[in-house]
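JOB MANIFEST
job_type = single_chain_structure
chain_count = 1
residues = 512
[input]
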Amino acid sequence: MLVKTYGSAIIGINAIPITVEVNIDRGVQFFMVGLPDSAVKESHQRIEAALRNNGYKIPVKKIVINMAPADIRKEGSAYDLTIAVGILAASEQIKSDKIGDYLIMGELSLDGGLQPIKGALPISIEARKHGFKGFILPKANASEAAIVNDLEVLGVENIKEVIDFFNDEIELEATVIDTRNEFYSQLNSYEFDFSDVKGQENIKRALEIAAAGGHNVILIGPPGSGKTMLAKRLPSILPPLNLHEALETTKIHSVVGKLSKETSLISVRPFRSPHHTISDAGLVGGGTFPQPGEISLAQNGVLFLDELPEFKRTVLEVMRQPMEDRVVTISRAKLTVEYPASFMLIAAMNPCPCGYYNHPDHDCVCGPGIVQKYLNKISGPLLDRIDIHIEVVPVPFRELVNEKIEEKSEIVRNRVVKARSIQEERFNETKSIHCNAQMTSRQLREICKIDEKGNELLKNAMERLGLSARAYDRIIKVSRTIADLENSMEILPEHLAEAIHYRSLDRESWGS
């Protein structure tokens, strides 16, 4: 007897339907075809033990299992339940009349229990798209999949529940999630707040400008000056995610298996902080079987690289193209996948190996040329993609003990949202550009007009401070954001002056 059940494979961050055809005939052999990997082939032993421990068995006959389309590699253990149900239906141990209405996925334990799977959300989206009545999956993934409306999501804990359901002996309760309520209930629940930071008003101002224009930032300062503390609070002043961004971000985390059991929808901007020992594939994605990397997990949020010069140079260099294109393409001999990579980069570094170059109280013990050699670990093309360079100095004792109430993130975020709304209106005819940091050179010339006084200021700054030519565009972009925060239609000299202040590493005298 031939029976078809349905599962799904993940390609990139999207799912495609997989048809599992099970045919049982005379004989005693077991064949599995359709490009399964080792984990899929091992399902035979898991299924056999799970069925036997629940009072069922694999028939001693010739069983042929085909996973179509046969030219796509099937990976992982999530097909266990799909194959097991197909075998039971083909051997007439369960009814098969409504099996085709459901997409079925789950990894089996030897006792028949179901383990969580990766990619439940994109699979659920695909199930609705292809007109399935419902999606049967492990209970641990049910709330994640139930974000998709108009689909019956049935979470189960054991294969016995699935068998009894198809035999019409029990009814499974569908998991229902109010997507909008789930989204708005956690929208502004940030762990860290700007009001926790004492002093550092100039750094807070720089981060506000970065958030308002989507600019990348590098913080340079000695140990203990508050670089990491400030970076962790950046997501709390970014504009809140919209529902589309939340679903996109959740899909990526779902594919990697990073969603917790309690989380069905990511509604706050992610903050990713990989260690400096990370590999190229760990940062941008890839591997033998490609998976999203840290830059994709930071989609719509913040990627924080602490101790930037300690990262391997090759790791940093592979970020250059994704930072520009906001997408990363992973190519293999038989497969090419794309992962989104639209993130804000915030990097932190000590000014020198000992950490005390330019420190007001400690002497730097680094030898001649060491500071510049340390800075040269970061390539010019990468620095070219970072708009704001700001030096962080230690907080004086008097500010640490000051009882003054600091400004909350919510107040700063309101100013950022107003500036972003101006930019949304400015770029409403350009789909791929949403903020000032993404402006092209042509748009820069059309939108950012500088008067004679401003041009004179820029000329003097570049000559006296030794600013490099690459700093010019960055200064104008940042000054446009400052003008937006001030609700100014024109870029004024004071906006340019502040933007020039945020180009520390472009000064030829820095580190020499």
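[summary]
The mean pLDDT is 89.
The longest helix spans residues 409-426.
exit_status = 0
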